[in-house]
Amino acid sequence: MATAKKADAPAKKAAAAATPAEAAPAKRKPNAAFMKAMTPSAALAAVIGKQPMPRTEVTKKVWEYIKKHKLQDADKKTLINADAKLKAVLGKDQVTMFEMTKLVNAHLS
């Protein structure tokens, strides 16, 4: 009887190993609305460039600009201190990073 249990064990392990691969979720497809190329306003184009790009790329370019010019607040990292170019887009001297996305999206068409 002991040999029968040992013979069944590898078969159970092989079946269990095959199950997670089959149950792996499919990769998410990006939302088409986020991938649509948007044209920036003149004020936003001064920060990220004038070529049309998806919202995701716009956000990346804005963050590149913020980091390059060291505009993130030193004490509270969620705050962005606007320079002259960024103030034309944001309309304020200082905004939160969450508020920034909303304000930047208003400059896309």
TrEMBL record:
**Which Gene3D superfamilies does this entry report, sorted A to Z?**
SWIB/MDM2 domain (1.10.245.10)
Q: Which residues form the DM2 domain?
A: 33-109
Entries under SUPFAM superfamilies matching the protein: SWIB/MDM2 domain
InterPro entries per UniProt: SWIB_domain, SWIB_MDM2_dom_sf, SWIB_MDM2_domain
Under the heading PROSITE patterns, the entry gives: SWIB_MDM2
Composition bias (Basic and acidic residues) maps to 1-11
Q: Where is the stretch described as Disordered?
A: 1-28
Q: From start to end residue, where is composition biased (Low complexity)? A: 12-24
Official protein name in the record? DM2 domain-containing protein
- Identify the species of origin: Ideonella livida
